[in-house]
Amino acid sequence: MYGPPLQYGPTDPNTRRLLAAGAGEQIKDASCCDYDRRTPLHLAAAEGAFSVVLWLLDHGAEVNPVDRFKRTPLEDAVRGDHGDLATLLIQRGGKVLDKEGALVDLADSPLAGNVRIFTDYDPEWEIDPISLKLNEKIGEGEFGVVYKANWNGTQVAVKVLKETGAVALGDFRTELNVLQKVHHPHTVQFLGAVTKQTPFMIVTEYMVGGSLADMFKGQRFPSMWRAVQLALDMARGLAYLHNRSPQAVIHRDLKPANLMMGGPKVLSPHHRQLCQDEMGVLKLADFGLSKSLKLTKPKRHRGSLDMTPDNSVLGGRTNSAAATPKGSVHGEMEKATQSYKLTGETGSYRFMAPEVFRHEPYNNKVDVYSFAMICFQLFEGLPPYWNMDPIEAARAAALKGLRPQWGPTNRRDQVIPNRLKRLVETCWAADYESRPEFVEVIEMLEDISKEIKTELAEPPKRPPSAVQRKEGGPPPVAEEGHCCSLQ
């Protein structure tokens, strides 16, 4: 069991072991480092572990140790795009090495343009909380409450942080860091934040149609054409995140509750239904678990996200490639230059990729798997593994190859096109290298959309067969009488 500062720190086991070694007076000793002369501060800065970096500095860790790769902790923070950490290190005297090997200020280095530094002055996105008038609560998570609010005459959504513990603040910083950098028609627009006083807040555009989860809870079943359009919106937003330069973004927490519906001004419940059923645009939200990484496109590993050359940060090697499925980082992708090893359980269990549940290294293809599970619910009208406990479902998917099984018709009594089923099944493949990139998914969905008759003129309604089912009851009988299948 780890105590402070590792309780909420990095997840990589080698990183945690080295930090644990430095959790006492050893952190002041120059010999507290690994083979590559990387200190606990190097590793914490590289992983973006703000609370760990702060603890180390407060307990006397040297701020400018230089590793075998001629890097300081500040350079690791900059290359990881951890702007808040870079600011903290600069405030404590952090520097980087120049070409001659001398320690210089970041401002005097070519690295200066690689990260957005947060200064003591009010940043351009800082909002005075007095200008916010909070109205009704529209959502709540573990660490925050979301309100519909008025900001200088504009209707907005405000996430208010409920607590200021290390985990909550970590998610807050992560979301803030990602939101201010992503700009796309299918990502929620960031408007500003309250960071100078508590409670901390994030202000975004108000999504009038609610979330995809709200639509599912309301027992609303979109037409097949409309469902494909929503899937396209999601895929376009994710294609943008995964191909963003120079820092690609893995969402890591895709689920219906984090997919919001925006549209024209809502004046009545009927308008809200129109937004969900016909006109609304789907946007990605909630980037609290996202990870920003340098994007590379190796020939054989298009899904890899690179954080080179910090080989010392990457642990957990295996000696047997034969025992690991193709696509596993333990096997073909063992080389540190080909994949940044992310571990740990993030996201909701029903939508969690098998490699995440197994605590194996993974890459951006975890979003493709979650996308497939959301699409299953979007097309079929039922959550994946609807009759199973979420954790048991995730365990069966990860260890036994279990996957949801299609019924003969969906909850709208529609027959799902085979091409659509095959696309979803490809996206939830056990071998993550077999899962397509979102640019490819978009092309396939656009082709399928052209083949489906547009049903916008038809008002959505529950079919008689769906009405007869009890709430939470079983779907139409699938092949062999099961709701799931083993892959």
TrEMBL record:
UniProt repeat feature ANK, residue ranges: 36-68
Keyword Kinase tagged: yes
Reaction equations catalysed: L-seryl-[protein] + ATP = O-phospho-L-seryl-[protein] + ADP + H(+); L-threonyl-[protein] + ATP = O-phospho-L-threonyl-[protein] + ADP + H(+)
Organism: Gonium pectorale (Green alga)
Molecular function GO labels: ATP binding; protein serine/threonine kinase activity
Pfam family, one: Ank_2
Similarity comment: family membership: Belongs to the protein kinase superfamily. TKL Ser/Thr protein kinase family.
Highest classification ranks of the organism: Eukaryota, Viridiplantae, Chlorophyta, core chlorophytes, Chlorophyceae
Region of interest (Disordered), ranges: 299-333, 453-487
Protein name, per record: Protein kinase domain-containing protein
